[in-house]
Specification:
alpha+beta; conserved putative lor/sdh protein from methanococcus maripaludis s2 fold; Elongation Factor Tu (Ef-tu), domain 3; 3 domains; 6-stranded antiparallel barrel; 4-stranded antiparallel β-sheet; 20 strands; 34% strand
Amino acid sequence: MKQGKSINRIIMLALLAAILVYLAATVAGALTNPYSLVQCYAVTVDVAQEATGLLVREEQVIAGDSSTAELLYSEGEKVAKGAAVAVVYHSSDAITRAARITALEQEITQLQYALDATGAVSDNAQLNRQIIDAITALKISSSSGDFTRLEDEALELRTLIYQRADAYGQDEGGVEAMQSRLSSAAAELAALQSQASQDTTYITVDRPGIFSGLVDGWESVVTPDMLSDMSPSRLLALENQQPASVSAVGKLITDDTWYFVCNLTQEAAEGFYTGGKVTVRFSRDWAGEVEMKVERISDPENGQVTLVLSTAYFLSDTTLLRRQTVEIMQESIEGIRVPANAVRVLTNETTDEETGQTTQTYVTGVYALVGTQAEFKPVDILYQDDGYCVVATDTGSKTALRSGDQIILASAEIYDGMVIG
């Protein structure tokens, strides 16, 4: 028994030693092997310039005391000419009265809706089913965060409850009682509205536009008219200003076209031209991409130019933006990504048989593993960044580099047809 255990222990130790020797040899080979493989793949690279600048619009400040005003329009909402955009309460009684007026208006709407629907339901069982369906729809909208139909669903439920009270005789007098309540509510509403005219003021606008509740003081500091002769030094001086605060209830954006103005170095602006189209990517206070037109590129000043871009898209989504850092995309490059240290330039020499003159040509490419051999594949470099290149190849050629090929990184001699072990 002892002899058998000794033999097993010797066999196990021998196997362990063999495994360790194999692992050590593999690691040593990997560390000393001058050839390694990296898979290439297709990519699309956006060539972009980062810029910080100002959004400029045609804006009209709406004067008023924002502390006592109630806004009647949402941010970015369209406003018609002559519409009231805010209501100003001059006393605490006016605020209390306004809440009662709102409640009465809702009650009148519900009663009118219920009276119009009276008689549409023929039996109580159907009415009960409709109430259950209305409650379910309201609960689903509320729990899912979908508030687009919430007001209509609440109104429908309240109307069905009115009808049920009438059907069961709980609302003594039925239709007559609802009509009486409607008349009473209408009379009270008229009286309150008459009183409100004494201490409540509506602020209206004299032209159509897009409403914004944010007034930041820049509305008069920089305007679209100023952009036609904006220079780098003037824009820099404007950006360093601290606009004064303004007492206002909001502002009206009166033109659909808005602008982004920024300074760029001459080198960064080389790819832009007046009338061209670029894509501007916002990512800080609003996430989105906007196609914009290059309106103007100023004359150079101390190595910088002022770039003016314009668009009529996404105005309602960008009313709160002013100073922004964006990416301006000049172009998108599609190609194959390869490691920068895999790119090689080979020299080919050709001799003219008649003159004997030797001509040298240079070919850029990479070595790829084909089977067990290295094969040189010519490429054209489209874009280069830190550590990688985006290249194009002649897809019609048999030696063309393709996405998924294994690129050879070599720290020792390599040549076309070399066997890579």
